């Protein structure tokens, strides 16, 4: 691997589904790497064995796969790298940048209580073992702590947040290896990022407080610090942190609600990032233009109307075969039966007249209802009102004229216009019962499109049934 190659990573904890905010973080990492010919790596931070589950890992992988975010190489398990983390902790001992601490929980708590009694709000534990003579070490369990800088400041140069200054007096000698030999999160993250060759750490700004403490590990080991970009979290429409009260928070929910993956990628890319006036773009275009400089510092607000608008553009842009394939995936995610082969065939013929008007897959299927339904057609309430006795009589007179008609719009248009004129009504008045007969709906594509899609025999059969 060339030293200049960009390497990003997404490192979720498998304690639940893939949150929409995590999906956007993964997307930013993916776009940044792919647009620069780099690598996008996936690491599952599963060292918390009590909360990590295989089901959550599977849900995360499924969410990323649906979003279309492919990763390079094998998925890395942080838990499987525990021996390596411990090795680094002991190397820091050898370097003198970390030390063995034998303080008990009771002693640490007593220290903090004494500090609070002195008026210190957030006491930083000062271990008596930091500079102790190894000859005084007891034969007891110990943790390994970092030697945090006591004076001065730590500067975090961040591509989104700018220069962040941390006073070193607020940094404690954090534990990197517990007494049972397991690493802490702060150590494991840095070791994994270093060993995986990560050049850019792009993550939520809720990790910004960790950056100074993790920088201590880089400095202690003499490792280069990657470029960092801490991105603001996603808020709900009301400006508060996104939660279930705002609606769906999991990536899988959006698939089950019928949003196309390409539309979600487009919308999430623009959620907190801007590039001039660009609103609608393909993933290939996004890879070319995405940069860290365009990420704003303020939390982005989820806007469902804008999401639907973007998704509508992508449904219209998507080739029919790809749209049909994703539709089947939506039906499975929503727990609905798959389309039959005849339904797929009819839907593929109908897409030209419905895909430009749908913002979600449920909308698309509703507009294509005429092609997916079968006789007997059950009209909804509005459509049933259009099939009164007069309208049924008009449809009955129309049916014979269609028997030998050429099945093109040019041939059908004058026939329908003549029937409307003979009955003293405008074409719109004829179209209402036609929609009801052909689709069982009052809002449909044009009657000519429906007739052409379902064909001559089925059109006549539906008209005969409705006019009976």
From TrEMBL:
Sequence motif: 'KMSKS' region, positions: 241-245
UniProt keywords, alphabetically: Aminoacyl-tRNA synthetase, ATP-binding, Cytoplasm, Ligase, Nucleotide-binding, Protein biosynthesis
Span of the annotated motif 'HIGH' region: 12-22
Entries under CDD domains matching the protein: GluRS_core
Top EC class of this enzyme: ligase
A Pfam family of this chain: tRNA-synt_1c
Catalysed reaction, written as an equation: tRNA(Glu) + L-glutamate + ATP = L-glutamyl-tRNA(Glu) + AMP + diphosphate
Localization annotation: Cytoplasm
Glutamyl/glutaminyl-tRNA synthetase class Ib catalytic domain location: 5-308
Residues binding ATP: 244
Domain of life, source organism: Bacteria
EC number: 6.1.1.17
GO function term, MF aspect, one: glutamate-tRNA ligase activity
Domain Aminoacyl-tRNA synthetase class I anticodon-binding as annotated: residue spans: 333-466
InterPro entries associated with the record: aa-tRNA-synth_I_cd-bd (IPR045462), aa-tRNA-synth_I_codon-bd_sub2 (IPR020751), aa-tRNA-synth_I_CS (IPR001412), aa_tRNA-synth_I_cd-bd_sf (IPR008925), Glu-tRNA-ligase_bac/mito (IPR004527), Glu/Gln-tRNA-synth (IPR000924), Glu/Gln-tRNA-synth_Ib_cat-dom (IPR020058), GluQ/Sye (IPR049940)
GO CC term, one of those recorded: cytosol
Main location: cytoplasm
Family (UniProt): Belongs to the class-I aminoacyl-tRNA synthetase family. Glutamate--tRNA ligase type 1 subfamily.
Subunit-structure text: Monomer.
Cross-referenced NCBIfam families: gltX_bact
Name used for this protein in its record: Glutamate--tRNA ligase
Source species taxonomy: Bacteria, Pseudomonadati, Pseudomonadota, Alphaproteobacteria, Rhodobacterales
